[in-house]
Design goal:
CATH architecture: 3-Layer(aba) Sandwich
CATH class: Alpha Beta
CATH topology: Rossmann fold
CATH superfamily: 5'-nuclease
Radius of gyration: 14 Å
Shape: globular
């Protein structure tokens, strides 16, 4: 089964706006592929939803529960320094490496411009759905 890492922005888009990111999550719910996540990405989802979109704690708890029922948390030990312009994005790459994923799905230009990292394809939701 293919393993995917969804970047924080993909979860945010799926939760708030639906569209292609939500289609990917819905396919994962149908066991079409496995979703990998780290504690850091989970924290970042909560932080962005709380700070930027003012999502209340009780809703954040439900969102976190839903994500954890779908995704497998991996322990991240790799240290990556591939994205100097936005070092926080290196945490996504590290999770992808340690989670042995096949694809990173992102809308972040810092990550997308890599196109591939250690044989992991990096795609937008649209390109992933078109090529799956």
């Amino acid at each position: 089964m293919k393993r995917l890492l969804l970047d924080t922005n993909i979860y945010i888009s799926a939760i708030l706006f639906g569209g292609k990111p939500k289609e990917i999550i819905d396919l994962a719910k149908e066991n079409k592929f496995e979703i990998i996540i780290s504690e850091y990405i989970l924290w970042e989802i909560r932080e962005v939803l709380s700070r930027k979109f003012k999502v209340p704690d009780n809703r954040l708890n439900i969102i976190e529960h839903d994500i954890l029922s779908l995704a497998k948390i991996v322990k991240v030990s790799s240290m990556i320094d591939a994205i100097a312009e936005h070092p926080a994005d290196n945490a996504v790459l590290a999770c992808a490496i340690d989670g042995n994923v096949d694809f990173i799905i992102s809308g972040d230009q810092h990550i997308l411009k890599l196109k591939k990292y250690n044989n992991i394809l990096i795609l937008t939701p649209q390109k992933f759905l078109h090529n799956k």
